Amino acid sequence: MNRREVRLRSRPAGWPTAENFELAEVELPELNEGDVLVRNHYLSVDPYMRGRMNDVKSYVPPFVVGKVMEGGAVGEVIGSRSDKVSLGDWVLSMQGWRDAYVAPESQVQVVRREGARMADYLSVLGVTGMTAWVGLNLVDTKAGDRVFISAAAGAVGSIAGQLAKQRGCFVVGSAGSADKVAVLKDELGFDAAFNYHDGDLTAQLAAAAPQGIDVYFDNVGGDHLEAALNAMRARGRVSACGAISRYNDETPRPGPSNLGMVIGKRLTIRGFIVSDHMSEQPAFFSEVGPLLRAKKIVVRETIVSGLERMPEAFLEMLRGGNIGKMLVRLD
Ligand code: NDP
Question: Rounded to the nearest whole angstrom, what is the distance from the C-alpha of residue 128 to the centroid of ligand 1?
Fold first, then answer.
C-alpha cells in the first residue's frame, strides 16, 4: 500500500514558504507483531512546528531536511496485529503530515469518548485544550480574576477564554481582525475584546479592562506582553504559553522595555510546556469533558481539505487565517 507524506525540503530564513515543503509517495511496510496500520483523518498544524523547522535544539528536536514532518494526528485503525488496539479504534499519534502509517501500538493512544467527535482530540480534548487548562491552572486562575488572553480567537486562546469564563473570571481577548473580535464577544462569551491592529495596545487594553488585569495568558509575547505588564495589578500572574509574534524573526529582538514592573508590582511570570503535564490528563478530561458534553464550550475550527494543502494550512495559521483550531481533513 502506498501513502503520501509531506517532508521538509529546506529550512526557511524568516517566514516559511511553500517551497520549504515537498509531497512524496512511499510504500508502507508490512505489519510486525504489535503494529497497527492507521488511516489519518485529521492533522494538526501548530505554531511550535515553525521552531522545529530551524536547525536549533530546543525542548523538541529540529525536523530533518528530506524527512517527513511530525505532528499531532487522529485517525482510525484499519489494520492491527496488536492485542491492545483493535480495528476501528480512533487513535491519536504524533504521526501527522501523512495520510497513513504503520507504527507499534506504544506510539498510539486509543481515544473515544461519549459525545466527542474525532476532530475534538486535536482541539478541545487534545493538546490545545490541555494547554489552555494547564496554563490557567499554573497561575491559579480563579473566580473574580480579571484575565487577558492574546491570540484569543486561536486554538488555545479560544478555549482558555471559555474555561476562564467557566471559573467566574472577567475575560478580555485580543485578536487580529474585526471578525475575530465579534466571535470572541458574540459566540465565545468574552466580556471584552479588541483588534490589536486598531491602535496602541496599552490604551486598548486599559479601555477594555479599566480596573487592570490579574492574569495574562500570553500566546504572543513582544508588544502584547509589554501592554499586559502595563495593565497588571499588584501580584498579577503571567502564564507564558507562547510568543508567536517572534517565531519568524531572523534575529532575536529585545524583550519588553517595562520588564522592571515585575519587581514593583510583585508579578510572577510562569513559563510552561504542556507535555510536562501529561500525568494531569485524567483531571483535564474530568473537568473539560463534561463541559463539552453539556455544550458549555464552543469549539471553533478552520478546516482545510487535502494532505497536499498541509503547508498552506500551516502558513495560513501563522498569518492568522484561522478562527479556532486550524486542522487539515483527509477524506
Ligand atoms: P493559534 O490557533 O492561536 O494560531 C496562531 C495565531 O497567532 C494566529 O491565528 C494569529 O491570530 C496569531 N498571531 C500570529 N502572529 C501574531 C502577531 N504578530 N501578533 C499577535 N498575534 C499573532 O495557535 P495555537 O492556539 O496552537 O497556539 C497559540 C500559542 O500557544 C502559540 O504561541 C503557541 O506556540 C503556544 N503553545 C504553547 C504550548 C506550550 O506547551 N507552552 C502548547 C501549544 C501552543 P491573529 O489573527 O489574532 O493575529
Answer: 11
Report the distance separating Cα 194 and Cα 318, nearest Å.
19
Can you tell me the distance from the alpha carbon of 28 to that of 42, in angstroms, rounded to the nearest whole number?
19
Q: Which amino acid does the sequence have at 256? A: P
Distance between CA atoms of residues 280 and 284, nearest Å: 6
Q: From start to end of the chain, where are the E strands?
A: 2-8, 21-27, 35-44, 73-80, 90-93, 100-104, 109-111, 146-149, 170-175, 192-195, 213-218, 232-240, 268-271, 301-305, 325-329
Q: How far apart are CA 99 and CA 101, in angstroms?
A: 7
| Sign of the CA dihedral running 270, 275, 279, 280 | positive
Cβ atoms of residues 229 and 267 within 8 Å: yes
User: Which of 35, 153, 159, 147 has the alpha carbon at shortest distance from 91?
Assistant: 35
Ligand 1 binding pocket mutation candidate from 244, 301, 318, 327 (most atoms within 8 A of CB): 244
Centroid of ligand 1 to alpha carbon of 220 (angstroms) = 6
Strand partners, 3: 26
Q: Please write down the HEC assignment for all residues of 100-148.
A: EEEEEHHHCEEECCCCCCHHHHHCCCCHHHHHHHHHHHHCCCCCCCEEE
Residue pLDDT, tens place only, 1-49? 779 999 999 999 999 999 999 999 999 999 999 999 999 999 999 999 9
List Cβ neighbours of 50 (8 Å cut-off, separation of 6 or more). Answer: 16, 247, 248, 318
Model pTM score: 0.97
Q: Whose CA is nearest to atom 39 of ligand 1?
A: 273
pLDDT band at 107 (very low <50, low <70, confident <90, very high): very high
CB contact set of 130 (below 8 Å; sequence gap of 6+) = 274, 277, 280, 281, 284
Confidence of residue 115 (pLDDT cuts 50, 70, 90): confident
Radius of gyration for the alpha carbons in the chain, expressed in angstroms and rounded: 20
Give the pLDDT score at 2.
Answer: 79
